[in-house]
Amino acid sequence: MTAALLFEQFLNGLQFGLMLFLMSAGLTLVFGVMGLINLAHGSLFMIGAFFCAAAAGLTGNFWLGLAAGMAAAAAAGALIEVTVMRRLYTRDHLDQVLATFALILILSEGTKILFGPFPLYLDVPPLLTGTVDLGLTPYPLYRLALIVAGIGVALGLWLLIGRTRLGIRIRAGENDREMIAALGVNIRALYTVVFALGAALAGLAGALVGAVQSVQVGMGEPVLILAFVVIVIGGIGSIRGAMVGALLVGVIDTMGRFLLPQVFALFLDPSKASGAGAALASILVYLLMALILVIRPKGLFPVHA
Amino acid sequence: MPDKRREYALNAVLALGLLLVPLWAYWAGSPFTITVFTRIAIFALAAVGLNIALGLGGMVSFGHAVYFGVGGYVAGIAAQHAFNGETFLGIAGANQMLIIWPVAMIAAGLLAAVIGAFSLRTSGIFFIMITLAFAQMVYYFAISWPTYGGEDGLPIYVRNTFPGLNTMRPWNLFILCWCLLMLAIGAFALIRASRFGAALMAIRQNPDRVAAVGISPFGIKLAAFVISAMITGLAGALMADLSRFASPAAMAWTMSGELIVIIILGGTGRLFGPVAGAAVLVGFEVIFGGMTEHWRLWLGLVLLLTVLFARGGIVTLIAGRERLG
Amino acid sequence: MVDPVLSLSHLSKSFGALKATDDVSLTLMPGEIHALIGPNGAGKSTLIGQISGRIAPDAGTITFKGRDITGLSVAQRARLGLGRSFQISSLIPEYSARRNVMLGLQARQGHSFRFLKPVMHDRRLRDEAEAILAKVGLAGRASVPSAELSHGERRLLEIAVALALEPACFLLDEPMAGMGAEGVGALVDFLRGLKAQAPILLIEHDMDAVFALADRLSVLVYGRIIASGSVEEIRNDPAVREAYLGDSE
Q: Is the model's pTM score more than 0.80?
């Protein structure tokens, strides 16, 4: 094991974490502002990936695909918000879980009908192919771009929430719904915008990740569940918590899968070591979540009600 | 009380219908029908378990598939070791259902005690996400641990046995499942009527009040969660024997969702809600699954409309809202 | 010298910069009604939360029947005999009045891990619950789900549930809130009889009721107890007049 390999895995973890952040940010915003648990957030991730891959395949242009993916996810999000979610804000969490579970079934089958049952593939754009020398190790340029994009979006989101009129309204909505309605903010429109924004972020994540994995139905749910872990760790409703949680989960998961089999190999024979190491690595982030729950039941950055 | 009488009638129809249709299929020589009804009975049993946590206690566990899956793995691992003569941590295998069932229930119960001890520190949306995450943890562990099949699951070459019955015959396996389902429904009724049930249903409605009269909600909820998981675990062991396969897919998150769907379609907290819900879900899959490969789209639409516009499920639709006395 | 049933010593709790309770000490003696009054935002809810165990104090101790209960949970305190009613009625909505009281009885007996015997067929529990309901004047409403009771009836049911616990002291959080004059009058008479059974710490807004009932009064303003004494002493206390009764005269 060399420092270069370790560094490369760390960057992979960072990149994974930033993509998780794009997913978690929308989820946590929607929960914080509207009090809604949205299982179909993973479907928006999938929609982003599919529309990006399909549009890029048709036009031959990755960047058009990226825009199409984001736009499709945002449009799907807005449509879902107006037709379904709106009726769920005042319902209990059980109804929200069921309705959004139903949406997953609908959106997954709908995607199959629209794009066929086979996975799509998205090529890395020519501009971002190849590797770049980072001193310690050469690193794929596209993955580096993902890291930069993730940081860029996080900064943009921070500015949006902290510095703009929309952000002020979002923060007000988290604290007191009646208050901002009383202030004359069109709360229905605000909810639709917040939902579409979260959807666009999920779609962006799906589109970006589409070039490093196959684009298929069901790709959203594993990410969704990890995003839940991120939110539990970070604290529901907290963007900052989502950032910290996502980076922790991304790096620990990636490094665990890389390091644990090697650690186990020190005292087990190789065949058993890789199995046991992989098994333990696959549950590492959940153990982290359990640990955080014991120490901080409301997450690292609790948003007090 | 006409509502109450209508519910009794509906319950009788469901219990007897579930018994008589396969009996007819037995005479008519349609093992496929018997197998479909065995699936209904097993899913209903799993949902009776979840109904204790969700229906009575209001705990929206989005990870109950994990107990279903663990029950299946107990059946699979026991059968494998009975087959190859090896041991699991020094415990010999078994192919006797009367041994496997309690072991499956204990395994599911222990896991639920651990998961519950963490997740029940929270409530609401946190609880939903955490139960889902822990179930996913066990799922990933199962598919990445190669000893018991990993992603491929674990086949059960010879179906486990029950004294005096040839379990390879569909009708015999069905009648076992039906009897266990009725026993579980009986247990559910007892629990609901008991002091424990009184406390549990009160906690669902107002945990602060229950604490203020001196009953700790945590202990009651944890006990209910464990009992709930044990019943679902038993159903998992039966499912593994029915499909002769212990599958990691049995503990996938979609399974957890389907168990909740069964309860909601049937009627949350209602005695025979799980039976009605399981019949609808399995029936939907068998009937529409034969007509279109996109049957899940229609299931999703039906489910969505049910949640948005027809709350309370089938039992409420027919027998009205429940009064707790 | 008789020992107090409940005593708070130097309780403090801050939320950020806000001192919700600031070095609060008070006692509840056997057989008395000790009323706690104060304007809105004086920290009464926080104090109730700390006594009942929902809010952990930053500093100070709570002693109940000679035992330090500061670290105990809500349920543990209730089992020791701290019976409380809620400011906003907090009942089991789908349960009938009878069943709400039965839950209190069940809790007092300490048998909630019983799985077999149907509780609604338990004659003794039912009869006892109905006797308690009769005491507060809800005998005819025993089978009505608590969500369908009127506001005043729910206030009475709150008291009935507290009675079922046979507590060593009652912690009543604005039991008259939202009640009509007639209801208040009946409740005042009832509480006067109740204090022989167990002392009452009464948090109440209705000043006429407080002055009619209280053996002692404490006044909470901005989280501090600014005065404590008999009704007469409090009426004439200049600090109270200024801070609380204020400009009204």
A: yes
